[in-house]
Structure prediction request, 235 residues.
Amino acid sequence: MGLDVRWQATMDAAIENPKSSVYDELIQSELITYRSRLATTPGFPNLDWRLFKAVVLIESGGPACAAWTSRAMQFGNPSDPAYNVLRSATQGSALIMDSQLKNDIATKSISIPTLNIRAGIAYILTMAAQFGSAQMIDDPTIRQHTVQKKESLFSISRSVHTTIQDIATNNPTLGRTLRPGQVIAYQLAHMTMVITGWTPITPDFPAAYYNGNSNGQGDPNYADKIRYVYGKLPP
Prediction:
């Protein structure tokens, strides 16, 4: 494994410290909330709260360190691009965060330890989620549009607030070339981002996507550190 013995001693002391359980309920509650909201998405992963606790202990250094009562997951440190992802609700994070977390990210200090942990969990889930586009029907009523000169499927879809996919579905014999006077059936619809799958959240996942080892800038021993701490935590 090659982990520094002094680091192991620090983690052992952190785990044995009675204060190390202060965030357990928060972590468990957050993951329960995500399960209730996202469990029906394809391939929703197992969320083991102890793995997230291991990340908190490793990032903060444990209850004896100052980070334990501020940025417990080191989320939002200077030059941290992850913080901007949540603040701008980009890269699919808008589908991961609930309205309360979005508001707290926008209005509160990221140095509040509970918010720091909630944000860190949200970012890990954002990185684990796979996103794609899907059509949403806004009104099932079948409407009609008469093709005008120089109109295309794209321009029609924009002007009547539908999608090319919906036009194709409702007009199966429609060809690529439109003729003025053709009548096209459609429903009000739009394309939206959805969760299409998930990457399993194993010790290697935070090492690559939270600590940053995927770009060569993270701790090469991070996954082993998670395994070490995780293995010491009671079930």
